[in-house]
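Follow-up to my earlier ticket, as requested here are the two runs.
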Amino acid sequence: MKIDKKIIKELNEYLEEFNLTEIEITEKDTKIKVSKYTRSNINQPSMVANNSPNEKNILENNKSIKNGIEVTSPIIGTAYHAPEPGAKKFIEVGKKIKKGDTIMIVEAMKTMNHVPSSSDGIVKEICIDDGQPVEFGQTLIVLE
């Protein structure tokens, strides 16, 4: 199979033009996926080559995190702090939570996915704003 470099270049241009982190195209039995960075890059900011606004936010979030237990997003989507607009938030800074408690909802493809805490602890920092897009593996909260 010969790879058409023009398609990859065009997809890369779309990443820049629309400020995307990845894009995928499927035609018949061929599937091409182009991505700016991988999950490992998020945890190692120095490896990020191109600093778009989204990448800068991720880098700043990673720099602001102190010691603690990080709870990360299991999927790509939009994070919400409450089950519906105007409702009580799942967590607040200083709140004690248990393993399995819902900390946020991440909406992906019109499906609301509850994100459980991976351990017991006290919420030290909420790293994501309500309604903010999140990446797979991006830190949502930090626990003490």
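Run two:
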Amino acid sequence: MKNDLLIVVDMQNDFVDGALGTPEAQAIVPRVVEKVSQFEGRVIFTQDTHDDQYLETQEGRLLPVEHCILGTSGWDIIDQLDPGNNVTIEKNTFGAKALAQMLVEDQKKEPITSITLIGLCTDICVISNALLIKAFLPEVPIHVDATCCAGVTPESHENALKAMEVCQIDVIR
């Protein structure tokens, strides 16, 4: 029996058309919505989550733009996607430690046949989660659908895709 997973990384208002939104992020929304609606396996969402002390964190000092503050509209998953009954994992940093730990436990119960990641931002949270999962589950095929990802810039998006390919992550172009 197949146990394929789709991980939708940080498809939140602040990353699409809010505080850190980009035209590239806006452009992938229809493809992301289609991919999620047609996916036949389990879908898991991650949600970048900060509090009102964000600017006092290391990340906040290096990226001094308040974003994805818990309970704000910028923190919400975009309206076009409804996480519904799917698992949503809040994360306070680029990689979701709880996601990796959950996947390791899931793998013990039923082998995961593949994991596909999509979402934002390719060069920060997508790559962080792809590499984190690869470290915890090195024998599970990991895919990143580049057509359903966007980076901070087109150049950094492409750099991240190349870095993931070198790390034996299958990039779907």
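The only thing I checked on run two: The mean pLDDT is 97. Let me know what else you need.
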